[in-house]
């Protein structure tokens, strides 16, 4: 069968020949019926047009009608339309009048007595209509042309059956089209018609590959590639209409039939096929259409009994409707699976929103009754409109908890937010707001504090308000610092006169105050108001309960930053605050836990801090807490940086930055960016560092003391690019802002030493000495070797000469006693340069070589490059830079190979680092090349398999 598209009809050569033969048969032995059968879009109407055209040319009186969704409900509607078109002479007018009279009278009787539409038609009515047709045919042969007979009213089909059984004696030929992919009430009558002795059923077969190739070439005006044609034929299923619409869409987009356009052809073809199936589906009986919608809602793997229940149908009727959907191409025959995944979406879009809501409600109820997983039931509740029963809320809350455990906070939030769309009593709404805030505090902090405030304002009981405020923290403050402080202080004020179990109320007050301080550090004006109360805290009375430990950690942190404590006493107090892991075990005390760790870190107790970071990061990953993960990774980045692991520090900083870029912008974002800039600076990647400083910070970031880290990072970039004046200006601004916060200790952010070196390079010797001296005084009051060594290094460079060398020697001594290995490398290089300037070349070479080795071990490229240059100038012959080995690995590669060395799979590494498996494979391939390895098992020989988290 070959189809052509000339704008009028498809060329059906063989089928048209059959039409010609049947018309000739009428002239020989009178009367024929031809049923043209095939799926929708197979060319039935086009062939009918050919039949009408040939009949008219052969001298037949052509009487034409068509069925339709509305026409099938009118008694004898098709018969009346047939005879109305026959009034061309006296005989025709009499026949029309008789036929209409007979049909009208029968319709009135059927309506009056409620008879079946066709079963009770009197034989005299059918025979009278037959005689009317015979009267017409006696004057001129008749060609009766009926399109979509399956949608013609049953009374008219019953008459056609009557006519077909007697057509042998009349010069009448009937051409009718029937869609075999439509289930309808006329099936029984159509079967009778097809079995009539003078009836021929002409079934239209699908297009073959050769015909499809011809169509593709004609529509796209080019010789098509075989794979292109194959895809077009495949997605159309050989249906001419679908193929034509596919090719028309491709032609409109000027798509050539080439191999590299196969995917596009498939995409366009699937859309055309879905549209065609949707048209076919609309023509089906109501139960069949409903079943398709139910399956679209439930999914392909739905149980038949659930489908039947949701569709409010008997199991037998559901099976019958499913068989129809399989026959028409909506479902894979014998299954409840759509023939294409896009089919479900197409059917859902064609369903009204109110219908979808009702189906999802029924689905949720049916699945819940059968004990389906809560996430499956909840998925339907999300689409079922606002929940109306508390049982629905229970399911949504359980599903939210499951989603949190699976590491899907966005899904968990969607469940709880949907639960809040219902109309509930205040207690239930408060409970939902609290549960939502717990999820949002890491994933959507802004919404979290808004919902917290709403929940607290709805509570009447001061105790309940206080407990809720405690249980829902910590929250990133952002621009909400002042508002949150007001809320917490209001909770404290209302809790004042509350009687009850005294220890519990005291602990609530203590925790509320601790949270209030942690929130206030996000805003200088708010913190200024609270500072006197912090200063008044008595350390000796703190440390017994989690709340007191939290206050003690905060008190020590601020005292250390203000320069009022030495490292030894600060570590002693913080150790007391962390006794029993009360801060680590309590989720609500994370900010205070970080304050304690910060004190230990600046006290250079890296041995105590590193394991705690590892534990916290592992737990944050396991529980999918992106804000906590970012905060801990950012802090550990600084630890690794000073400890002499620049690549590892950069990897941590990037992990934290990725969380911020994904939308989880927390209070520590400035610290994370500054840590990454410091690492990039040591690698000489100034452009990348500058781009990072263009980060979209939280609007309130500049009001926090943490913003000073960003100013110091900008100074680093300016210095690296040679703009010393701008670098100095930013450092001095950093110092001014730290003074606003009463932060005077050099150990928090050593801006004075750096500013002194910039003044020295700019020729401002007096100011350089003053700042360097202040930095040394501050470091000595704090008392850690690393801080003292760094300050001595700055003063030694500024002083120069013999005194400068003496200061630098002292700096090395302190540096060797410190875990801050990168600072020691820098001090060794400065000492070597000073020795070289004093013409002590041999000693200088030893010192510089040691500094070079240490800088190389730290992965500090800029420092190592300077050491190499100075060593050469001092007459040394440094070893060549290693192009292979662990020092040649990028931070990301280093992190991946550490995981791999521990035997962790690529998939697990990808999950741990929040990257794709392909990225892991890429890093491993590069690492093997740089390390000179051929297989994974060799990693343990060159990489220490420690935990890189």
Notable traits:
single chain, 949 residues, mainly alpha, Rossmann fold, Serine Threonine Protein Phosphatase 5, Tetratricopeptide repeat, 5-stranded parallel β-sheet, 67% helix, 3% strand, elongated
The CATH architecture of the domain at 13-203 comes to 3-Layer(aba) Sandwich
Q: Whole-Å distance between the termini?
A: 67 Å
SSE-based structural type: mainly alpha
* Spatial shape: elongated
The CATH topology label of the domain at 13-203 is Rossmann fold
As a whole number of angstroms, the C-alpha radius of gyration is 42 Å
Task: Return residue spans where pLDDT drops below 50 for at least 5 consecutive residues.
Answer: 1-11, 109-118
Tally of strands: 5
In CATH, what is the homologous superfamily of the domain at 13-203? P-loop containing nucleotide triphosphate hydrolases
Biggest sheet statistics: 5 strands, parallel
Oligomer: single chain
Sheet-strand content, in percent, reads under 5%
